Amino acid sequence: MHTFDIEQDLNKEQQAAVLAPDGPVLVIAAAGTGKTRTLTYRVAHLVTQGIPAHRILLLTFTNRAANEMLERARVLVGSGVSNLWGGTFHHMGHRLLRRHAKLLGYGPDYVILDQDDSQRMVKNCVDELKLKSKDFPKASVLQSLFSLAVNKSLSLEELAKGRFSDHQVDLADVFSVHRRYEEKKRALNGMDFDDLLVNALRLFREHEEIRVRYQEQFQHVLVDEYQDTNIIQGAWVDLLAQRHRNLLVVGDDFQSIYSWRGANFRNIITFPERYPDAQVYKLETNYRSTPDILNIANRCIAGNPEQFQKVLRAMRGQHKRPVLVRTTGGYDQARFVMEQIHRLRREGYKGSEIAVLYRAHFHAMELQMEMNRERMAYDITSGVRFFEQAHVKDVCTVVRLAGNPGDELAFQRLLGLLKGVGDKTALKLWVKLGRRFDPWEPEQLALLGKLLPERARENWKRMAGTFSKCIRFDAEGSPGHLLAAFVDAFYGGYAVATFDNYRNRREDLNGLIDFSSKYETLQEFLEEMALQTNLDQESRLTGSVNTEQVVRLSTVHQAKGLEWPVVFVLWMVDGKFPSGKSLDDSGGEAEERRLFYVAVTRAKDELFLGVPQTSRGRDGVVQRCMTSRFVTELPLDMLEVETYR
DNA sequence: GTTTCGGTTCTTTTT
DNA sequence: GAACCGAAAC
Fold this sequence. Notes:
The chain has about 650 residues and is α/β, with parallel strands linked by helices. It has 31 helices and 19 strands. The structure holds a DNA duplex (15 and 10 nucleotides).
């Protein structure tokens, strides 16, 4: 059953970390040094040592990382790991709160608001308080400000003062929006992403019996990507591990790229101070990339302040030199990438072995157009996340209402799909129905039918038909039926009339219905959906495309933790990468540089850095571009310089 | 008073 | 793509 051999499967550095004795452990794992592998083996090792899986807690940042590690651990030690507590911080927070939310005054069936939901709710607050004006900050700005305050553990006042220092904004108004927002969430029995973290921490801090119970339960706590934890998460982990003190954190301060959302890499930097008896292990042996690529990585990051010094040691031999390519503009850059992809294909690379990375989604516009024109298969984790696309959110409103009749946002959105009903009418109806709408109650359906404006009724009949067709049983059963029925009866027609890319959206919806049928209850589906930002790559790709030949387009952030034989980095130009906006923010230049480090270390064999000489600004005006400082900082002989026009 | 529609603008990064 | 704005339509 245990089909692994630590001595044979791992190098010395990794072995040391995996076999580390009990107590606090800090593993500094540089890029491509087998961090996931080490963590997985550590879990497997603990299980074979006789630690019951349910007494191990494994925290990650992304769903992808959680799934990958649990999957790999399962391969090593079999189904024994299935009781392991593993997942993202938000998942774990939710898992605890689902059990104990009552203690904090929430109902057990609270709803999770994703970012889009929060933003809409903030917008509703601004509307209700009649604060809408040209000068007043937009809902999205306010929402992210509220969120940042939580994640950085700063007072809203402090943060708002800095943010609006040069605007004429009455901070009192900002506060009242915030207060209203908090009240609204309470009224709805809802938590946003930040509440999941904050409330989970409160649970521990304010309820000793809960704290003691979980401190006792988790004999071992393991944290992945520790450099990305924020203050709340850091405190959470410290608290949980207090009893047994078997806390193993893995991270790479070089790859800390989330300070803009509150990540505090001081957590990792000060770990040895907070745990003076901590064992520190470094992983520096890199199997991924060629020496030339690692040279660039080592060189670019070395000057950053405040970090654990480490140098990537290459295990691979020389291959092709990394290339810096100067092009006239974005279009030529795209042409260059296309030509190279054709060459690579001729040399035997598959499309899926190639990735194009960039700082911001719109940087890939020209390339997308070119790829479309040539009908080259590509997959892009688009700027809009799968579950936040309009059509996905639209159809999910029915499940939300079926699961929670008090979901105002869902109601508003659902009714907004009817011609002749907008925000105002929806809100009026919501109040008339007593701020509650249960689609399974025939009386409510009939009442709403009567209250609706004349021209909305025709469509309403079809919408309402969905509910009468799905018997109550479905509310407790799989959400798939309900979604399918809604699409059949109403949304299919609506989508045809509304979207020009109807077919794609219909495919998304089919994918969603497939995805939903994995869940047995509406509640489960809703929770999972809110915490999931994207469908897995495999399930999103249509069967008709040969996935082997699909080139990957991605932001650098989303590429973290992944690797490809060939990597292109677009727009290595000051203002774009580093991004002009981020330079004055908290992370500043150092964080942008770390981002560049992440981009470079994704490449195994070949690396291309694109440097267009001009870019088209807002009004179509052509501007000269300065080569990115991250490139000019490098010694010239580290790169092959090419000009393409 | 509301809603719709058509045009415009703007895109950093994510659970 | 989708949020936003202003003008026209209900």
